């Protein structure tokens, strides 16, 4: 393989000036292949293939001001599928006139292009292909193409963009185009084309990255696997616990059939448990990280892998917490719609009439429910805010302080308010022995364990002596080392001084 000439780190390409969306996006008409209004000219680009991807690519290239030559095995039949400004011709003809050629055909048909080897000499081939499985072949498609055409320069790119994104414009889809090649100049040329089309080129280094780039579109929510399994695990545990308490216990002890509770009531008591515990799991790794930093007196010691992984998945865990909370809100609103609820209500009314009781108003219960619902709504509102601001488009519009204020401070407030919501729900049930079914405590008492640990830890960390030490550690101070440090004072001004580990 040719020697690697590019840096293999993920590096945002900044070769080109101007906004990345400088070119107008395709209008409504252009999605139907009519881009005749765009000025042709500029660089001539070839496209091999006349399928979905080739068509979308040609439309977008034409709209971005490129002269497009489409190479097809059957140009006559395919010409009507392309915009009038694109020239549809035989493969050899298209390849002859263009320096950069997008190979928009599947890997298994690459060998059929070998007849074109002579006309392809010295050209840049852009491999846009994807596989059907992760690590399907020994070498990447781009490396395979390069091995078939050693006299060409192959650049991997555009495979993470779908035909739909190409048609609708980068504004409606993924804006990033990952590019790699062993030839810097060829990579720069393709990056310029991507930029002119309204995409953001990202330099992924040399050709050995092609395999990784080809795997990206095939990965199914890689960052979500652990959080989803965590949420499912918690759901199954709490669901089983609630099922035992709400359905199995009355059946065994009183021969009462409460199976009807399973689809809504049991699910609805499980969802807030999952949501609440998941929310606390967003903040627990931060607490553990702070404990580790305080214990070792440095921020330069690597966290264990599991903690690192946990810290990286906080966003997904938080979003799943919000998802469960939103479902809980909808389920709760639907509770009065159930037949069982109406029958029980009527039964209570009849009993009351038989007993000649005029009112069943319990002041304490009324207040409990008012507060419980109110703090629940506030908690859901805050969780919605956290979820919205974690979206990349919103997060990018916030500066670091705004982002950390919302995600860290307001997130912690959401946890405290959720705790109030849980406490007002439970009220005095923890002290009522009838609530201990099969000696199992009410579910809400279990859910309080982790969140309360986090809240107490956060309160302890906010004590001036601990907060001060943590702040110093996070600014580079290390136990056992004599360093100069600069710290903000209580008034927000910075004070400087010298200290040693013993201070
Ligand atoms: P497609 O609709 O099946 O088109 C493939 C084209 O390959 C055909 O139209 C055909 O055009 C051409 N071709 C050349 N030699 C061929 C041969 N021997 N046998 C069959 N066809 C041959 O596929 P596509 O969806 O456009 O995908 C094309 C490439 O783009 C693939 O590598 C795919 O992985 C990649 N890609 C596609 C998307 C997407 O959203 N569709 C996204 C990213 C990457 P002629 O008959 O005119 O020669």
TrEMBL record:
Record-annotated Ferric oxidoreductase domain positions: 274-416
InterPro entries tied to this protein: Fe3_Rdtase_TM_dom, NAD(P)-bd_dom_sf, P5C_Rdtase_cat_N, STEAP_metalloreductase
Gene coding for it: STEAP3
An example Gene Ontology CC term for this record: plasma membrane
Superkingdom to which the source organism belongs: Eukaryota
Family: Belongs to the STEAP family.
Reaction it catalyzes: 2 Cu(+) + NADP(+) + H(+) = 2 Cu(2+) + NADPH; 2 Fe(2+) + NADP(+) + H(+) = 2 Fe(3+) + NADPH
Species per Swiss-Prot/TrEMBL record: Catharus ustulatus (Russet-backed thrush)
Keyword annotations of the record: Copper, Endosome, FAD, Flavoprotein, Ion transport, Iron, Iron transport, Membrane, Metal-binding, Oxidoreductase, Transmembrane, Transmembrane helix, Transport
Chain ranges passing through the membrane: 226-244, 276-296, 317-338, 371-391, 403-424, 444-466
Subcellular location: Endosome membrane
Protein name: STEAP3 metalloreductase
GO molecular function, one term: metal ion binding
Topology class, membrane: Multi-pass membrane protein
Record-annotated Pyrroline-5-carboxylate reductase catalytic N-terminal domain positions: 44-131
Listed GO biological process terms: copper ion import; iron ion transport
Cofactor(s) listed in the protein's UniProt record: FAD; heme b
């Amino acid at each position: 393989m040719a020697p690697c000439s590019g840096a293999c780190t993920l590096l945002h390409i900044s070769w080109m000036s101007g906004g990345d969306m400088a070119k107008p996006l395709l209008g409504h008409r252009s999605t139907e292949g009519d881009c005749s209004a765009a000025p042709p000219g500029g660089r001539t680009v070839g496209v091999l293939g006349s399928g979905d991807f080739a068509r979308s690519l040609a439309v977008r290239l034409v709209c971005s001001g490129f002269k497009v030559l489409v190479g097809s095995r059957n140009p006559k039949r395919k010409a009507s599928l392309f915009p009038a400004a694109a020239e549809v011709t035989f493969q050899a003809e298209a390849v002859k006139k263009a320096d950069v050629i997008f190979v928009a055909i599947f890997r298994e048909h690459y060998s059929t292009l070998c007849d074109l080897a002579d006309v392809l000499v010295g050209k840049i081939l852009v491999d846009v292909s994807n596989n059907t499985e992760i690590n399907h072949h020994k070498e990447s498609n781009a490396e395979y193409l390069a091995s078939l055409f050693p006299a060409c320069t192959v650049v991997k790119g555009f495979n993470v963009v779908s035909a739909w994104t190409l048609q609708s414009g980068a504004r409606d889809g993924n804006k990033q185009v990952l590019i790699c090649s062993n030839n810097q100049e060829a990579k720069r040329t393709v990056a310029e084309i991507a930029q002119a089309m309204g995409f953001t080129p990202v330099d992924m280094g040399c050709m050995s990255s092609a395999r990784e780039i080809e795997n990206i579109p095939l990965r199914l929510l890689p960052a979500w696997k652990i959080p989803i399994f965590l949420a499912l695990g918690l759901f199954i545990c709490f669901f089983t616990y609630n099922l035992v308490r709400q359905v199995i216990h009355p059946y065994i002890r009183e021969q009462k059939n409460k199976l009807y509770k399973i689809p809504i009531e049991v699910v609805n008591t499980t969802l807030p448990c999952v949501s609440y515990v998941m929310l606390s799991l967003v903040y627990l790794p931060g607490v553990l990280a702070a404990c580790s930093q305080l214990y070792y007196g440095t921020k330069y010691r690597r966290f264990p892998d599991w903690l690192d992984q946990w810290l990286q998945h906080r966003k997904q865990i938080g979003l799943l917490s919000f998802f469960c909370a939103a479902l809980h809100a909808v389920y709760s609103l639907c509770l009065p719609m159930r037949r069982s609820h109406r029958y029980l209500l009527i039964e209570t009314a009849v009993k009351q009439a038989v007993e000649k009781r005029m009112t069943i108003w319990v002041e304490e219960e009324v207040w409990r429910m008012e507060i419980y619902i109110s703090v629940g709504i506030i908690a859901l509102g805050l969780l919605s805010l956290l979820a919205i601001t974690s979206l990349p488009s919103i997060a990018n519009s916030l500066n670091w302080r705004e982002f950390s204020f919302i995600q860290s401070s307001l997130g912690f407030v959401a946890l405290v308010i959720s705790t109030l919501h849980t406490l007002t729900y439970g009220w005095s049930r923890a002290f009522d022995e009838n609530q201990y079914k099969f000696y199992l405590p009410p579910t809400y008492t279990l859910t309080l364990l982790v969140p309360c640990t986090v809240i107490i830890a956060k309160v302890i960390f906010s004590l001036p002596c601990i907060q001060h030490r943590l702040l110093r550690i996070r600014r580079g101070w290390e136990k056992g080392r004599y360093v100069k440090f600069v710290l903000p004072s209580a008034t927000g001004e910075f004070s400087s001084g010298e200290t040693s580990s013993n201070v």
